[in-house]
Write a structure and sequence with these properties.
The complex is a heterotrimer of chains A (431), B (460) and C (469). Chain A is an alpha/beta fold. Chain A contains 25 helices and 9 strands. Chain A is 53% helix and 7% strand. The longest helix of chain A is centred in the middle third of the chain and has 18 residues. With 460 residues, chain B is α+β, with helices and mostly antiparallel strands. Chain C folds into 5 domains: 87 residues, Uridine Diphospho-n-acetylenolpyruvylglucosamine Reductase, domain 2; 119 residues, Uridine Diphospho-n-acetylenolpyruvylglucosamine Reductase, domain 3 (2-Layer Sandwich), CATH 3.30.465.10; 116 residues, 2-Layer Sandwich (Alpha-Beta Plaits), CATH 3.30.70.2190; 89 residues, Alpha-Beta Plaits, CATH 3.30.70.2740; 46 residues. Chain C has 15 helices and 18 strands. The model of chain C has no long low-confidence stretch (mean pLDDT 90). Classes of the chains: A alpha/beta (431), B alpha+beta (460), C alpha+beta (469). Chains B and C meet through strand 9, helix 7, strand 11, helix 8 and helix 16 of B and strand 9, helix 7, strand 11, helix 8 and helix 10 of C.
């Protein structure tokens, strides 16, 4: 798209293609599946509405006002709309494009710049940032704060948010895992493991389990220490440049590692990793490498489904239900594999919940920025989960796990939240 | 008799032959099948919509009311003229214009007798279901004007569900066509169904486009005797709740059974609380199991006797008692007033109880029978009109019956229309707002108030 | 623009969070699913109950602003577009199924109930609400009633109007009116209930709906049939009816549509076929078997090139997919889709399709025709690009000719989508003066201040010949 042909309100750098916006025939089918529309009931909070706003802005009828920006950030990016759209409109993509435009056109808060350019891409700094949280949680401060109601004195929203993070492990996984984990027995594959950020910082034990399961099944696992954030958080905030920078960094890293596959146990890292080829397709230097990289990215459940698995599993007598992370089910088309893994474990009684692929409301930082909306969406999910009377909700995304974990406490349910592969790991380990 | 100038102008429109002025004519065109008798001012029998248009224009000019009528078999006085009005009979417009086998529609003139159309289409394997009891003599124009029903309504719906289009001459004389041979049509307001049931107050119908359905290949009947009325009505609910849809479910209460037995002496169980007569139609192979299931539900519901016909002849004989009701009523008392209240199905037992109570308190025999399947009951008050004291009681009883129906969530009329007889009770059923709206609709079509005035709604 | 005092009053009635006035909100409520139409309202309100609705409309009468009712905004004729500005009244906060009466087989619903939610609720207890408009997973009952929505099952089961037996309506002057009731038969007074159905939000705002339900059919079979010639398909349709079978679904796709659908679902559809029929029969299992056998025989007698028949419910869904994908498939081909629903008597379906094909050639526009062959309700769908003004001029000419052709064949402008804005100009062609006068007179009688959804259905524009209005 050239400067001249770009619609008035947007610059051509990364513009929602006007063609794409026009493809929306406004039939309204997306309204039937959009969680924000189902909760708010207003047209402005629907995919059709957001596309219409973008179109109006593109035609110069709307400015990028504070309200406009706010609406662009109400989208969960859960992709349910794209799934049902008869015209093939990817409303969530168009919204992301709009966020990029907003980031380019409007002055950004300094903190945001610091977070996405300074903090997130730097694993050392990320670990340092989590340290106070670890301290707070481990030294009993958290227990104290919650029990004495100190948290209740904070604005409700922040007080609640403080309760959300799971107990972070003291030693960052990055430091614990060796650069190369040897295969147990015969080495059949050489794979890379993508550390990511949220999963490895907050659910380190899960990821350690992922590596163990891989090793047990004949994979030599290479875990490059310098793995940076996959870039999705930056992208979600419209910082395209940082996202591309991170992509290039990670591509280089795993290119050097020389692996058959790049495995991740985070749905978002997986989805965005597979998206790198789209992201960098206009980059003459990286286009081919990105394509090769994206083709090698696999979610752990996807990889395990493709290889013969060690079936010496101990019994775990437990009732399990499953929540489809948006980035796994819709973003990567992976729905059967995690369920198969769970059903493989002896003793597991698998029960499907109603609307398993309805977004949990986590959506990255949505629960921080849109607490009430996030909770309304979460409540729907928790009601469905509660009806299964399961002991465990399994889900392969750290944000979902965090959100569901919070939901369990909020609804006072006796359920645990875990990653499917963590359960498999548990079944592999001796009693 | 209206002034001779009117007669002269009418003669110019339809021809002298079709303007009737003799006293005998004025009497004969002054009644319907209700108990009322009026005198017409003059009678005219047009043949075309254009003639009717001219007549209405004349009526507007001279401010003379016009009262349309078909075969005048109405039960509510809706077609009764008076000495100041023109009785306009459409009976000369009696052609079946078309039976369209491709589109399954019939196009008819308003004076076609319902049974004649039914015979014509059944000969072609088609079916026009609405079967008012008067079908052998009533006209389709009248059926449409009243929104006529009949026993088959339970399964097939009423006249309103079959009218796809109309040609209507409006009170101001304009000829309007609405609807068409179309199953689906949302162009403009739903004027077609506004006219159905408008009792000749919004326009005179000159052509009707009716929907037809395939004729059910076969039908069969069952009869069940219940010691207790409540069991019978509960069984009706059970049958419908079981997902079965008979074409009719008729009920006769104990008074009705007694009345018919007086007349027919056929050994009817006079101590029974009620008799149900149920008919199913459709594919032969489906009927047996359906009827067996119905028979079973009746037994489970408390029936003391269940007869299931195994063929058409047996079915016919099971209907005898029900068909004899009208005649029996006529024999038993000098006069009868048949009401036509409609209640939600779930309220039938209570409604019958209240009618029985009213009957006792006013010492009037009121047999109740009717279409139990759709909640449309016919309590018939039997009396001698020469007894003024009795008439007083009849009027009070009637009023209480209407009140009971409305109280139970029902309505004054399921099929017969409001006409004159139920006019006083409209305010009990309809709110002042609704009545006001209806008056506005009437005024919209008939600014000078010349078409069938004084019927259905009180003038303001 | 609305005066501040009016906004204050509206806020007092519905509450701050239910009055939307930011520019972003106005953008989103200025359109519905009709292409090329849109205009920003002055404000949006979301009433929570009948009292709110009545208060707002009374205010509108007093202060002279317009009110445009809206459900989910999936209307296809511009019926919910606030063409004269005013306040859009979104009804979807009133979304409860209030009662399902299993004894009388009725249900009371609020206007914001999504149609497929009603389906699910009644089907769970063995009952059935047949009207199934294509938008049913998102459109609301209030909208269905206002437009008299149809659907695939219309042929056998009828349309929304056939199921509405009672309403609570707020009149254009603000009074709350109740019509109809749970009685199956009711001839007391004029049928105001049926007058309201299909009145497109111009005679009242619907605040409660009483629908009748029927028992759910026990079994169903689906057939997909392909024909080399249009005539054979059309004759099959008539023949099935002539055999006295009324299938609940009898759908048609033309060659253009078949090609669009194949591009989308890749089901190896035979692309040279001129026509495809989707036929469903339902009822008790024995009847379904015999009806299906008869239908297939009829198809063969009329040179069906290929017949696929379902053996299981999953099969049924798979076969129906071809028809239900018609809309999405066409939508993906071009940016703009002008979806018409000119309807003709069943006997005229083949001639109408042929005329549409000729019109398409004549004006060099791409038209895919599919729809409900069984009841004559076709959807000629023009695939174009609204940015190409020259092309759109040809599209407008084509649409004009399609309407004229339908009317000439004894048809009507709209079978299900309503008149709204997009067909308003053609109203007099079909209704003629007598009909238009009656229509306008009724509107004026109920809405003297022209508050409710003005500018639609040609009501404001019609001028009777002769004496001035």
């Amino acid at each position: 798209m050239t400067e001249e042909s770009a619609p008035k309100g947007f610059s051509p750098k990364r513009v929602p293609s006007y063609d794409e916006v026009l493809n929306c025939i406004r039939c309204g089918l997306c309204l039937s599946v959009c969680p924000t529309y189902r909760e708010a009931g207003t047209e402005t909070n629907s995919p059709r509405g957001r596309v219409a706003l973008i179109r109006a802005a593109a035609e110069g009828k709307l400015e990028l006002s504070h309200n406009f920006v706010d609406h662009m950030y109400r989208c969960l990016n859960c992709m349910a709309c794209a799934e049902v759209c008869p015209s093939g409109v990817q409303a969530h993509e168009i919204v992301l494009d709009a966020r990029v435009e907003i980031a380019n056109k409007l002055p950004q808060p300094a903190a945001k710049k610091w977070i996405f350019e300074g903090l997130v891409p730097n694993p050392n700094r990320m670990e340092a940032a989590v340290w106070p949280l670890r301290l707070y949680q481990r030294t009993g401060l958290r227990w104290l704060a919650e029990r004495t109601g100190v948290l209740g004195m904070l604005p409700h929203h922040l007080g609640e948010v403080a309760k959300m993070p799971p107990t972070a492990s003291m030693t960052p996984l990055r430091r614990k895992l060796p650069e190369v984990t040897p295969a147990q027995g015969e080495r059949k594959y050489r794979v890379g493991f993508f550390l990511g950020c949220a999963q490895s910082l907050l659910f380190a034990e899960n990821s350690a389990g992922t590596v163990r399961v891989l090793a047990r099944n004949g994979a030599e696992v290479v875990t490059p220490k310098d793995t940076a954030c996959c870039g999705m958080p930056a992208m979600a905030y419209g910082d395209l440049d940082t996202a591309m920078k991170l992509a290039r960094h990670n591509i280089d890293l795993f290119e050097k590692a020389g692996v058959d596959a790049v495995i991740t146990d985070c749905a978002t890292c997986g989805e965005f990793g597979k998206h790198y080829k789209e992201l960098l397709k206009h980059d003459p230097e990286y286009a081919e490498l990105a394509a090769a990289y994206s083709d090698r990215v696999k979610d752990i459940s996807q990889f395990l489904a493709e290889i013969p698995l060690d079936d010496r599993l101990n019994e775990i007598k437990v009732k399990v239900t499953y929540h489809d992370p948006c980035h796994l089910a819709r973003g990567q088309g992976i729905t059967a594999q995690p369920r198969d893994l769970l059903k493989m474990i002896p003793g597991v009684e698998f029960v499907e919940m109603k609307e398993p692929n309805w977004c949990c409301g986590g959506a990255g930082t949505y629960m921080l920025t849109h607490y009430e909306g996030s909770m309304n969406i979460l409540d729907r999910k928790m009601a469905n989960a509660a009806n299964t009377e399961a002991d465990i909700i399994a889900s392969g995304c750290p944000v979902c796990q965090m959100q569901l974990g919070y939901g369990v406490r909020r609804a006072k349910l006796r359920m645990k939240v875990t990653h499917p592969v963590a359960l498999l790991d548990q079944a592999y380990r001796p009693r | 008799m209206l002034n001779p100038e009117i007669a002269r102008q009418l003669s110019q429109i339809v021809g002298e032959r079709y303007v009737l002025t003799s006293p005998e004519d004025l009497i004969c065109y002054g009644y319907d099948a209700s108990s009322l008798q009026k005198l017409a001012g003059i009678v005219v029998l047009p043949r075309t919509p254009q003639e009717i248009s001219e007549i209405l224009k004349l009526a507007n000019r001279e401010r003379v009311p016009v009262v349309p009528r078909g075969a005048a078999t109405g039960l509510s006085g809706g077609s009764l003229p008076d000495v100041s009005s023109i009785a306009l009979s459409v009976t000369r417009m009696n052609q079946i214009k078309e039976i369209d086998l491709m589109n399954l529609v019939a196009v008819v003139e308003p004076g076609v007798v319902t049974a004649d159309l039914q015979a014509e289409v059944e000969g072609k394997g088609l079916f026009y279901p609405p079967d008012p009891a008067s079908l052998k003599q009533s006209t389709l124009g009248g059926n449409v004007a009243e929104g006529a029903g009949g026993p088959r309504c339970l399964k097939y719906g009423t006249t309103k569900d079959y009218v796809l289009g109309l040609e209507v001459v409006l009170p101001t004389g304009e000829i309007m066509r609405i609807g068409g041979k179309l199953m689906k049509d949302v162009t403009g307001y739903n004027l077609t169904q506004l006219f159905v049931g408008s009792e000749g107050t919004l326009g005179i119908i000159t052509e009707i486009i009716l929907r037809l359905v395939p004729k059910p290949p076969s039908k069969r009947t069952a009869m069940a005797v219940f010691p207790r009325l409540d069991d019978a009505t509960q069984t009706v609910a059970n049958i419908l709740g079981a997902g079965l849809l008979p074409s009719t479910i008729e009920i006769m209460d104990t008074t009705t059974i007694w009345v018919v037995e007086q007349y027919l002496h056929m050994g009817l169980p006079v101590e029974a609380g009620a008799i149900l007569i149920i008919e199913v139609d459709g594919h032969e192979e489906a009927l047996g199991p359906e009827l067996a299931r119905i028979g079973q539900l009746c037994e489970e519901g408390g029936a003391s006797e269940v007869k299931v016909a195994t063929n058409m002849e047996e079915s016919e004989s099971l209907w005898t008692a029900r068909r004899a009701v009208s005649g029996a009523l006529g024999r038993l008392a000098p006069a009868k007033q048949g009401e036509d209240i409609s209640v939600p199905r779930s309220a039938i037992p209570e409604m019958v109880r209240r009618i029985n109570d009213i009957s006792k308190r006013y010492n009037i025999t009121i047999p109740v029978f009717g279409h139990a399947g759709d909640g449309n009951l016919h309590p018939n008050l039997l009396f001698d009109m020469r007894d003024p004291e009795m008439m007083e009681r009849v009027h009070k009883a009637t009023a209480e019956i209407f009140e009971a129906a409305v109280d139970l969530g029902g309505t004054l009329s399921g099929e017969h229309g409001i006409g004159l007889l139920k006019q006083p009770f409209m305010a009990r059923r309809l709110s002042p707002l609704v009545l006001e709206l209806m008056r506005r609709v009437k005024a919209t079509f008939d600014p000078n108030g010349i078409l069938n005035p004084g019927k259905m709604l009180y003038p303001e | 623009m609305l005066e501040q005092s009016i906004l204050v009053e509206l806020e007092r009635i519905v509450g701050k969070e239910n009055l939307l006035c930011t520019k972003e909100d106005l953008v989103c409520y200025g359109f519905d699913a009709t292409p090329r139409l849109g205009r920003w309202p002055d404000a949006v309100v979301r009433p929570g109950n009948t009292r709110d609705v009545s208060a707002i409309i009374q205010l509108a009468n007093g202060d002279g602003f317009k009110v445009i009712p809206r459900g989910a905004g999936t209307n296809l004729s511009g019926g919910t577009v606030p063409i004269q500005g005013g306040v859009v009244m979104q009804m979807n906060r009133m979304n409860r199924i209030q009662e399902i009466d299993t004894e009388n087989l009725t249900a009371w619903v609020e206007p914001g109930v999504v149609t497929s939610d009603l389906h699910a609720a009644v089907e769970a207890i063995g009952l059935f609400y047949p009207p199934d408009p294509g938008s049913m997973t998102v459109s609301t009952m209030g909208g269905n009633v206002a437009e008299n929505a149809g659907g695939l099952r219309g042929l056998k089961y009828g349309v929304t109007r056939d199921y509405v037996i009672g309403l609570e309506v707020v009149l254009p002057t603000g009074e709350v009116m109740n019509t109809g009731g749970k009685t199956i038969k009711n001839v007391t007074g004029y049928d105001l209930t049926k007058l309201m159905v299909g009145s497109e939000g111009t005679l009242g705002v619907i605040t409660r709906i009483l629908v009748k339900l029927i028992p759910k059919p026990e079994a169903k079979k689906t057939m997909l049939v392909f024909y080399r010639t249009l005539n054979d398909a059309a004759e099959t349709v008539s023949s099935i009816i002539a055999h006295r079978i009324i299938p609940p679904t009898l759908e048609f796709l033309d060659n253009v549509t078949i090609n669009c659908v194949e591009q989308y679902i890749h089901a190896n559809l035979p692309l040279e076929m001129e026509a495809m029929l989707l036929i469903e029969v339902d009822g008790p299992p024995s009847v379904v078997e015999s009806d299906a056998a008869k239908v297939m025989q009829v198809c063969r007698e009329h040179n069906a090139a290929e017949i696929q028949v379902s053996a299981t419910p999953e099969d049924s869904l798979r076969l129906s997919l071809g028809r239900r994908s018609a809309l999405p498939a066409c939508a993906r081909l071009k940016p703009t889709m002008v979806l018409e629903d000119a309807t003709v008597p069943r006997s005229q379906v083949a001639p109408m399709v042929r005329q549409i094909q000729e019109i398409a050639k004549k004006h060099d526009v791409l038209i895919a025709t599919f729809g409900h062959a069984g009841d004559g309700n076709l959807h000629p769908t023009i695939l174009c690009d609204e940015r190409d003004h020259e092309q759109m001029e040809r599209v407008d000419l084509a649409v004009d000719e399609i309407f004229k052709a339908a009317l000439a064949l004894g048809g009507t402008l709209s079978g299900e989508h309503g008149i709204g804005l997009s067909k308003a100009a053609f109203m007099t062609m079909e209704m003629k003066d007598a009909g238009m006068k009656a229509t306008v007179a009724i509107k004026r009688a109920l809405d003297p201040n022209n508050v409710l959804n003005p500018g639609k259905m040609y009501l404001d524009d019609y001028r009777a010949p002769g004496a001035g209005n």
